[in-house]
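Q: How do we represent a protein-ligand complex in a form that can be generated token by token?
A: Start from the inputs.
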Amino acid sequence: MRVLIETGQATFSRAGEPVFEPVDLSVSGGQALVVRGANGAGKTTLLRLLAGILRPSSGRVSRHAPVAFLGHLAAFKGELNCRENLDFRRRFSGTGSGMSNSRALARVGLAGLGLRPARALSAGQKRRLGLAGLLVAPTAVWLLDEPYASLDDDGCTLVDTLLNDQLGRDGSVILSTHQRQPELQTPPEVLVVQRFAGET
Ligand SMILES: Nc1ncnc2c1ncn2[C@@H]1O[C@H](COP(=O)(O)OP(=O)(O)OP(=O)(O)O)[C@@H](O)[C@H]1O
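Then emit the structure tokens for the protein with adenosine-5'-triphosphate bound:
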């Protein structure tokens, strides 16, 4: 299977010091990678590096396919309603056509909330809207930071289903999680991010 995203000895520095020990990873279509590590180890930083939001201060990050990043805080405009946010996401991503708004909202359990401003959604509903964003603008690589956060049991099962669907389309998923191990048809690889230990 084709490699969709990879790194070679990649790290990111703040104030001249690497956040985490250099990371080598390679994820192909149909593969999932779970990123683990202690609080502050650098999981979010690594995912932002993979997304291209940050640039590596040493080593390399190579993206061979379009990526979507879903962070802790959903990147939605609070004053826009759910449908408008999904329209924005679709236009902004420029990727191929995905689900319609109404189908995506129904898929994530937000049917009937299309006209509600994003700021008026509960924490879990905001996470679900983020998932809908992945469905309206499909990409080969999903980078998900704590995708189970704020979700109820049904929401967590929904995440697992969407992950399995993505892998079934030969997409890739890289996700961080403290809460639970994803229940996937093919067991994911695990990468433990190690906080930079300093020069020895
Ligand atoms: N904008 C920033 N400015 C300065 N330091 C930052 C910034 N963002 C993160 N850090 C620091 O970088 C380190 C890694 O943070 P990061 O959020 O990547 O960790 P994490 O592994 O995702 O943590 P958690 O499990 O708590 O979510 C931490 O020490 C954090 O304080």
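The chain has two domains: 1-65+140-200, 76-139. Helices lie at 43-51, 82-93, 101-107, 123-136, 153-168.
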